[in-house]
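WARN  no MSA supplied for this record, continuing single-sequence
INFO  ligand: S-adenosylmethionine
INFO  echoing inputs
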Amino acid sequence: MAGNRARPTREIQIVPPYLLGLRLDGRRAIVIGGGRVAQRRVPALLAAGAEVVLVSPEVTPTLEDLASRGELTWERRPYRDGDCDGAWLVQACTDDGKINAAVAAEAEDRRIWCVRADDAQASAAWTPAGGRVGETTVGVLAGGDPRRAAGVRDAVVDGLRDGTLNARHSRHKPVGVALVGGGPGDPGLITVRGRRLLAQADVVVTDRLAPRELLDELAGDVEIIDAAKIPYGRSMTQEHINAALVEHARAGRFVVRLKGGDPFVFGRGAEEVLHCVEAGIPVTVVPGITSAIAVPSAAGVPVTHRGVAQEFHVVSAHVAPGGAGSTVDWEALGRSQGTLILLMAVERMHVIADTLMRYGRSPDTPTAVIQDGTLQSQRTLMASLATVADDMTASGVRPPAIIVVGAVVQVARQIEMLRADMGRTP
Ligand SMILES: C[S@@+](CC[C@H](N)C(=O)[O-])C[C@H]1O[C@@H](n2cnc3c(N)ncnc32)[C@H](O)[C@@H]1O
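INFO  complex generated
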């Protein structure tokens, strides 16, 4: 008998579902049950603009929070017949099969699509494994195998994000210029949005510190302009960079200006935005992970630590203390006990350390120098403020490097020592 009952189920399975994109904006969706399944389903319904009504005596803290912020209506009671009235979509998500069956039966009666969380075969509708990349929505059903569906979805979404599924010829190609923060150097540390825009670029204007490995992934016809090299001489001037951005965008090409770290942290990004806006070119800024925080972090140096440092100062030291045009208050930095993060400081570290000590920083202040942070060649030098400049010369530190001055460096040492001890434990 059991075999007989199973047969219709198998027949249902081979009929392929009809995949549809529901535009739920402003339409009511009823969710019966407030547990983990509902918690997974509700955010997608809200993102689609649905008017969500949740019926359940109890809900998870996350769902309760959404209700208290007015993002959904929570009816704090068990399901009762008639709840599906007025809904466009019903989600039966309780942990009681009988209740889910009753909900599904009511929905069926009213010809409302119902997804049953507990029984795929008895469910009128299935939720695909979904993902979104820009304007593209991906939905995958894999014959009732949710893991396989999620795997295929991940592969498609990853391909769209990293450009291996070519997005350059999509109908909704971006226009103008995007200033993309490339992160500190490791190609894995660019943002998802930055990588997607890069994959859509016709022209890429790149910096010395932008993650170069990403350029290898670009199609052969993408024009790459190395802003640190020809055609404008050894170093492309800011004026020439600005002119190139505008010229290519005016010719209808989508231009990505790929910069190291974040475009607005010592990156002259705002100058480029101003220039494009003045020329009437649409320009977007995609924030990046700045080396100022990511490079210490990658070397195990926290920039804050409870009870040790509750402030950090990021300083461009391209002008030495007391040098013409210096606007940094070195006296205040010397007095402060906060963490100092020095960029572009390699060639000036003798005078910087002397200045900080003269204004009050202890010569013993722990100091770390991180060269080529997040790259294969990353290396860290530990020193004190008194010795750091000589130690840097002795070990041949070269830019790009970040110098961290402050007690947080001691925390990094503690972590290192603990790690070494753990490694020795049998
Ligand atoms: C002109 S600033 C650009 C900063 C960039 N916009 C950011 O947000 O990271 C260049 C300086 O950033 C620091 N820097 C950038 N990338 C680095 C890396 N991977 N390792 C160490 N320092 C880095 C160095 O101090 C370098 O001289």
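The CA atoms of residues 177 and 255 lie 5 Å apart.
INFO  checksum written, moving to next record
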